[in-house]
Design goal:
- InterPro entries: NAD(P)-bd_dom_sf, Sc_DH/Rdtase_CS, SDR, SDR_fam.
- One of its GO terms (biological process) is monocarboxylic acid metabolic process.
- This protein is an alpha/beta fold.
- The protein has one domain: NAD(P)-binding Rossmann-like Domain (Rossmann fold).
- 44% of the residues lie in helices and 13% in strands.
- The chain has 8 helices and 7 strands, in the order βαβαβαβαβααβααβ.
- It has a 7-stranded parallel β-sheet with strand order 3-2-1-4-5-6-7, sandwiched between helices.
Length: 254
């Protein structure tokens, strides 16, 4: 069994996954629960979906807690933290997965839409990380993993707002990694390519086929493939990996 510098066995650590009621977030929760870890499933409004993910995780024998919070609000994040402290589930591992996308021309983007995408993807990551990194610093150990996007690296036509938000997340990752490295806390980002989730629902079958044809491996990624990479970065033996933007994308971007 791997033991972290904090002398807490990996399987006894706690992971908080934001936006874990579906898609990649749910797959990440399943992956950590498969080794019996303490798993916190965060959601905003999808109460029943979060409970379904929790039930699936508990089948592995994991200790699971669901918790709702609007991550754009520091007050709600503080309440979330109080709840986790009450249940003795302060995270050693934070996975910032919550996010929203937008597809459309920049000329059609309203100021409100811009703010919504930035606030959920970027401000939410900032506020959540700022609060939950403090116990990690105190114990001289922790893992922060941000779920970004290939478009945060390369940019995408008709996804300017989303690309900008994820590009900001990547810069946040690199800078914070340097800031927290002396405290034994690693910070990395996983930037998936096209993954079979609801975020692809804006595209019809023909458009999806055209996208898949552009990917050298010939298909979209699966949420569990992204979850496996997140899990690897969380391991104690991954402690020399920090400040990295790793993009599992089937060879689409090299």
């Amino acid at each position: 069994m791997s033991v972290s510098p904090s002398h807490k066995p990996f399987t006894e650590q706690t992971v908080l996954i934001t936006g874990a009621s579906r898609g990649i977030g749910a797959a990440i929760a399943e992956r950590f629960s498969s080794v019996g870890m303490n798993v916190v499933i965060h959601y905003l409004q999808s109460h029943e979906a979060a409970n379904e993910v929790a039930r699936s995780c508990m089948r592995h024998g994991a200790n699971v807690l669901t918790a709702t919070a609007d991550l754009r609000s520091k007050e709600q994040i503080l309440r979330l933290q109080e709840k986790l402290e009450h249940h003795n589930m302060v995270p050693d591992i934070l996975v910032n997965n919550a996010g929203i996308a937008h597809y459309g021309l920049l000329t059609d983007v309203s100021e409100q839409l811009w703010d919504d995408v930035m606030n959920v993807n970027l401000k939410g990551t900032f506020l959540t990380t700022q609060q939950f990194m403090l116990p990690m610093i105190s114990q001289k150990y922790g893992r922060i993993i941000n779920v970004s996007s290939i478009w945060g690296i390369s940019g995408a036509s008709c996804e300017v707002v989303y690309s900008t938000a994820k590009g900001g997340m990547n810069a946040f990752t690199k800078a914070l990694a340097k800031e927290l490295a002396p405290s034994g806390v690693t910070v990395n980002a996983v930037a998936p390519g096209a993954v079979e989730t609801l975020m692809l629902s804006n595209f019809d079958a023909e458009e999806k086929a055209a996208i898949a044809n552009e990917i050298p491996i010939g298909r979209f990624g699966h949420p569990n493939e992204i979850a496996s990479l997140v899990y690897f970065l969380a391991l104690p033996e991954s402690g020399y990996i920090t400040g990295q933007i790793i993009s599992p994308n089937g060879g689409w971007l090299t």
